[in-house]
Amino acid sequence: MKKSFFAVGLAMTLATGAAMAQVKPEILVKQRQAVMTLQGKYFGPLGAMAQGKAPYNAQIVQRNAGFLDNLSRMPWDGFDPSTKGEKSHALPAVFNDDAKFKEAASRLQNETAKLYQVSRGGDEAAVKAQIGAVGKACGGYHENFRQKQ
Amino acid sequence: MKKSFFAVGLAMTLATGAAMAQVKPEILVKQRQAVMTLQGKYFGPLGAMAQGKAPYNAQIVQRNAGFLDNLSRMPWDGFDPSTKGEKSHALPAVFNDDAKFKEAASRLQNETAKLYQVSRGGDEAAVKAQIGAVGKACGGYHENFRQKQ
User: pTM value?
Assistant: First the structure.
């Protein structure tokens, strides 16, 4: 099922193509940035738990992992070519290196889906390892596609 | 199960209370506004379908309903008393009429959870009716807790 979520996401993007074309570029940017804001909200506490900076709370991990699983499927249609000229932190590679961008997007979705699954089990060490894998996928994505902050 | 999601949300809010206290008020506002941005993104097309302004697409309805079910559980901890003085569209009633606010929040979550369930069935008329119910819950919430736009 490696690419299933992304494949579905792509099919959706194609299916909603006509509708998307009507959404203003600045709105698309606002929407995709909203996703990142919420990814930060729900990943932050997990990162802190994985690093031992906050006490481990399995209930919060499960909830946040479910939210993150959904959020990881939301931003991609916001990177429409119409947004190229909009002010944002997106690097040109987002639009110029489609294959690599889709690979990074797919990786984030797969790692997040896996975190959701692992969080349903009771293996704290496995959950923490998978939180690390999601963090790495975020980092790899930012490294290649987002301006340094 | 009428209040189950909200009850869980409340328990989470209490559990994360210590962590929340460290999040700056302006970040809390940004996070809750991000949720509304995405609720608009994913509810908009459903509203159009329910009103016959866009062709009905069961696959998109299911996806969006799943996203909305998650999103409807995200904003509430952002309405922390520390955000009272922040610039936003929130009316004082958010902080002054806690029981009514929680009731409206709970209603939105319940109607959205129901939409998610109904969207899994094949009854287009029932789905459209439930999209209307979610829209009404949004509207009721805005009427009482958000400044007129």
Answer: 0.86
Identify the residue whose tokens are 């940004």: B30
- CA A106 from chain centre, in angstroms, equals 9
H helix or E strand, kind and range, residue A6: helix A4-15
Supply the ipTM of this predicted assembly.
0.85
Dump the DSSP string for A17-72.
HHHHTTS-HHHHHHHHHHHHHHHHHHHHHHHHHHTTSS---HHHHHHHHHHHHHHT
Window B:8-37, CB contacts with A under 8 Å: 8, 11-12, 15-16, 19, 30-31, 33-35, 37
User: Tokens at residue B43, please?
Assistant: 């509810």
For the CA atoms of B137, B139, B130, B95, the dihedral, rounded to the nearest 10 degrees, stands at: -20
Query: pLDDT tens for residues A23-81?
Result: 999 999 999 999 999 999 999 999 999 999 999 999 999 999 999 999 999 999 999 99
CB contact under 8 A, B15 and A57: yes
Give yes or no for A136 touching B (CB within 8 A): no
Tell me phi and psi for residue A69, to 5 degrees: -60, -40
Kindly state whether A132 is in contact with chain B, defined as any CB-CB distance less than 8 angstroms. Answer: no
What are the structural domains of chain A? 24-145 (1.20.120.10)
